[in-house]
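Support case: user asked for a sample of complex input and structure output to validate their parser. Sending the pair below.
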Amino acid sequence: MTLLSVLGVLSSAVFSGTSLLYTTLGEICDQRSGIVNLGLEGVLLVSASAGFAVTYLTGNPYLGVLAAALAGGLMNTILGYLTITRGANQLASGLALMFFGFGLSAWIGRAYVGARITGLPRFPLPGLSALPVLVRSLFQFDLLIYLSVPAAILVWWILFRTRWGLGVRAVGESADTAFASGRNPRRIRYQALFVGGLLAGLGAAHLSIAYAMNWTEYMTAGRGFIAVALVIFSKWHPLRAIAGALLFSGAVAFQLLLQSSGIQISPFLLDTIPYLLTLVVLIAWGGTRRHSAPASLGRVYQGTE
Amino acid sequence: MPSVSPPQAATQPMISLRGISKTFPGVIANDEIDLDIHRSEIHAILGENGAGKSTLMKILYGFYRADSGQIFLDGRPLSVHSPNDALAAKVGMVFQDFTLIPAFSVAENIALFQRDLDPVMRLKDVSRRIQAISSRYSLTIDPSARVSELSIGEQQKAEILKLLISDARLLILDEPTRVLAPHEIEALLGVLRNLRSDGYAIVLITHKLREVLECADRITVLRRGRVSGSLIRREADEARLLSLMFGKELPGLDVEDRPAVEANLPALELRGVSTAADGTQTALKDIDLRIYPGEIVGVAGVSGNGQRELADLILGMKACVAGSKIVFGEEVTRESIRSIRERGVCFVPENPLVMASVPFMSVLENMALTRTRRYARLGGLRIDWRAVSEDFLRSSSTLGFSLPAHAMARSLSGGNLQRMVIIRETAQAPRLIVASYLTRGLDAQSTIAARRALLQARRNGAGVLLISEDLEELFTISDRMIVLRGGRIVASFRPDETDSFRVGLFMTGTEIQHAATA
Amino acid sequence: MRPQPDLAERAKSASARAVGGLLRYGSMAVMAFLLFGVILLVSGKNPIGAYRDLFSSTLGSARGFSEVLVAMTPMLLTALAVALPSRIGLINVGVEGQLYMGACFATWGALTFSDLPAWVLLPGMALLGMIGGGLWALIPGVLRAHGLVNETITTLLLNSVAPMVVSFFVFGYWHSPMDTNKTANFVPSARLPTLFDTRVDLSLIIGLVLLGLFWFVMRSTRWGLEMRAIGGNPQAALRNGIPTRVYVISVLCIGGAVAGLAGMAQVSGFYGVLLANFSRGIGFMGFLISWLAGGNPLGIVLTSFAVAMITSGGNLLQLTRDVPYAVINILLAFTLFVVLARPRVLPRRKAA
């Protein structure tokens, strides 16, 4: 277990964790406004396929990223329409959106299965030229990766330091109180969902344009649900999500490290760690007092009616 | 109608209410009320539960619309359709349930309601403003503290600050001291006096005489929706206020002879029982109580002083943290609700729709709920609906009630729902009945029917615990009465030994100077 | 004999409800088909031809019809696994995970006891399947009963853990020599018998019987009454002495067991192997079906049939019209959207 292999794990965790981070930030925005988006898997798939298609057609990965973000925003707006304007059940609407995502992404991506793109260009941070070549090559990241932590900080700043963010959080805690303060909870929820969708779209973009650089059906492999778990684990806080994303995505990378030291743990068992950790944390919070879920999500998270 | 005393020197009232009336289905909440509220004055609105105090102030705050009458602001007519309108007219109200977001800090809560907040918030500025106002009026609070971690007294301060920063000049406080500890009450009264010297108008809705006499300048007493008296401080004393609140009548005549209670074994005995305070609930402290078969024990008290907790405790819904609960000589402190019911204990709760019946089930199905084991056949595969029906009809006719067996529970009126519950609970010759606010919200006929049912049960040898806020009802029916205040039993008498005046003293906490029978 | 209002009144309200239901299902189907037709047009396909194929392939032939039944079977069971807990107000989104665990336990039985005769092995596998699913629902049940965590989130989390457990066993220990992602074919004695000459297996009968049992229990038994009370007004039920805590745990576990049985039926009946990640949302589909049908057994049968028609018809669309199979999810989703959006043109559905 050399320094190089540890750095390798870190680099790998960063690569795979970036899309998770963006997705989680998106879901945090949704849930902070009081809406649980269970259809995230579908949103991610549609964004990934749209982004990939646009990248392939235009040859410009950045346009693809943009397309993916917009696709995510639009998908979330569908959820918004169902849950906010029509007052439909959030869980059922989310799952319906998921199935829609399965189908729509397959349809969008049908012409591009097996296609190859050049993906987002990677470049090292300036000032790293002093490091040995091997190390440097591990830390050549694309733009989305570099922007991921700033994005988390930006989301934190928006939620906690701006008037709009205060309104979003107020709606998520108590729509009645927000209404009493002169705000329009419905409009705020639509806005939060759209922003959340943009962020999730960025996460999907990184997956299909930068990380895997291809398109296959169901390629998100449960990331939508990992993000839901990660939102809980990071207590709905954007900054904690950074550490959480590293931790959750590091599990698989960690397995490679263990393998190289001769310890064999099945990657599948390691993949369960994010969920089990979240479960343990939820039990430890045990009940309504200690966890920090936005109050109007209570029905989904609290132990009693 | 008592005349309104002449106002103080030449100050026109800030707010005047004239002829305000409001009716809810079945009850007249406010009946032609006139009221003047002046600046630099603390105006107390006094009255029993249900006297109409909250309703009146909610009309002023725009929560309700009056059926008739007018509101004037500085002599000009004012129309208030919503709390926003009220706030624009500089009228603010602090409710009994706060409208604070527990997860936010004090500053964030106040910022939420600020109309001139910058898009990029500067919470430090908000905090500074909070600190300026709070030190001016001794409303000391830490702006960065999370509301969920504050004591109730501190949360109340935050609510008041919220109004002050929103530029309210008239503050209405609804029962503010109900949830405060004694030293917090002192602090609050001090704050109110400070505000008054700065020209604020303050309305204090309360039933606590001591505070009223300590800081009010003007007092209006409401009784059954009408103004029963309006005085200035100089003219007021305990005796006068109590007589305006409760009336000076003697308790009603006996409805029937009260049989002497002979049994030695109490139906229910509570020894040193205490419960834990849970959020806004009241903790019971060291309750000692005995109810014998064939007697009705009435529980008087302002609602919110532990009545609900007492009923839930006996039922088994609330756990004792200390003491023991004994039913007919058997220790049942940790028994399940079903087990307690099977010993012949039954419950008629205050809100039958929410607490005792399943809305989408028929009357007959609701009937079967309490004793599913009794009606189960073939190990549970079948329910003997004929037996349910027989019990239902038998119990109905004994009580003289008549209800359609197949109607859905939610289609019944409040009175009929209560009848249904009574039919069900008394069907198996109960040995102990706990009735909580039995007649709240019922029409006259249902009220009489419900009371008669209790008397009948007593005749059949049941012990009854009757929790009520209607003193007349308690005096008429009970064999013995206790008064609950702050989770403790503070007095116990027989109805013929006392009168509503003295009971009122204990209920409102002004028993200190008056000797009362223990 | 159950208390019933006047017979004529009952018949009238029942037929009114039936007509309303038909109108509702009918119009939602029409709207969904219209919307999907747009998608087909944009892909350059002929929607009318596609729909004609769909109906003729599914309803037009015995074989096609049997394929619909095959697709319907697992959904009956998973919907029941959601419907039962929903009657007491519990939300079981974890059917997917319980399904996998049931399949896992049943597969262990099939591989370990492959020498036993079918009449011992199959019931044994069914039992194992139910145990697997039931255990997977136990933790969420206990947590909910003690007021610690809502079952929605715990079942959701465990959903994602189960497929990985299955993959662990399949890739690690159980895989066949030729493929790493699935087990060897089950021995014939571990396969559920099929009916007539079709792929429909015994689990369809089991599913229908269980649904009938569900209907009977809820309607006539003591437990059904108590469960309906809990679902209708938990506080009132508690105050009447009904042991809600016991019901929460046991009902959720029974739901899990039914889902586990569905899992067993998938590996023993439909597939004949345990394939990693074999479920593409059957559990979630069951959740949606139960929700659409309002937890009503007859509604579940009808809705499962309708959904099965769409999914198995989708197979044919792929073969003849060159549209990827997954696209059929769009039609499903549109149907769901239409019901969720409750447009005023449809009769209102009762809140589930």
